[in-house]
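Reminder: ligand-aware prediction takes two inputs, not one.
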Amino acid sequence: MKKVVKFGGSSLADAEQFKKVGDIIRSDATRRYIIPSAPGKRHSKDTKVTDMLYDCYRSAKGSGLFEEKLKAIEERYQEILEGLKLSLSLEEEFEIIHRNFAEGIGVEYAASRGEYLNGKIMAAYLDIPFLDAASVIRFKKGGILDVAVTDALLQKAFEEYDRAVIPGFYGALEDGTIKTFSRGGSDITGSIVARAIHADVYENWTDVSGVMVTDPRIVENPEVIDTVTYRELRELSYMGATVLHEDAIFPVRQEGIPINIRNTNRPQDRGTFIVESTCKKSPYIITGIAGKKGFCSINIEKSMMNSEIGFGRRVLQVFEDQGISFEHTPSGIDTFTVYVHQSEFEEKEQQVIAGLHRLVQPDVVEMESDLSLIAVVGRGMKSTRGTAGRIFAALAHANVNVKMIDQGSSELNIIIGVEDRDFETAVKAIYDIFVLTKL
Ligand code: ASP
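Here is what comes back for the chain with aspartic acid:
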């Protein structure tokens, strides 16, 4: 059994958090490859070390005065070292960083030092070898990950090390230039390492006990999802649920490796398993509810449109010409509606209307803004009768007017359009009927 374990910034924000991480690693000998993030926020008003580094480097490039900012970063690490009673000194490391910043080495190098230094501390604290990500995560010139070389480098390194701390978020070009992934990219490093060593599981430790059934800002203390498939998660993330960096899914999914989201502050919780497929049923029929505000619908009416071949294509052509992507296209006999993101659509509204008149000569074009879309997602819906009925009964009881319904052919989700002002009420009502009353 081999596990790759990644710890997010809040799990490593200070010495107390480091100690929890130490206990987690020591309690399971199969947790062999450890991917740390940079220290995150210690409290809500705090600043992440990665943000401090970006800011410090900006000053180095701008006014050239960055000593104080670098000192503040050094103090964050010093506090961790002292809290852990480690004799490790980062003085030399900071001298090198100082020199490199002064010479304008590059912003990606600057940002990567957060993970690099945290990795050094973690390795010393756990007495596990440190493996610099620059030597095993390889990028191609354009900044794209070189999968084949990275896999080979990692596999070779793992012949030598049966345990290692590998900092997240960065790698290097062949010439050694440091490159980073986009923000939150330590998740990707963990996924890449898990794929390379054919891990049994990729544990992703954070500050919540897994993926929640719905947004905790709408429903207080929502239940945690026990098992979610990659497809379900994609639907939920697309509609706003934030769990993992999007690019972290692909490497492990390709290998059929499950991801286990865990809580560093509550290691006794099982967390959520994200898997390719499962015969495990969700206890609530549905797996999750997610949604977003800020959509707009464009309703096009034209009598006899159903006999006009190519009508839909021409309508969508107008949106394509303006570079606007569409979300849904519910239609009737003489009506065709297009749902788009309001922010994308607003500035091009008049061009779209003109385009529609030119290409499809509609009788009427009507628009409605401030709409929300809610996705009710669940692999169990396919085999359960009455799910849609329950959703709409719940919405009717809550006095929510449903503007649009769309069930994909996969029967994995039902998308519901409501007005923005009904959004929270609708999500709560759907959560209540499935999770609380389990009707
Ligand atoms: N430290 C980086 C960030 O704040 C990467 C990560 O935490 O995953 O984005």
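The pocket of aspartic acid is lined by residues 9, 37-38, 48, 50, 114, 168-169, 183-187 (CB under 6 Å). The domain at 288-436 is CATH 3.30.2130.10 (VC0802-like). We will return to this case in the review session.
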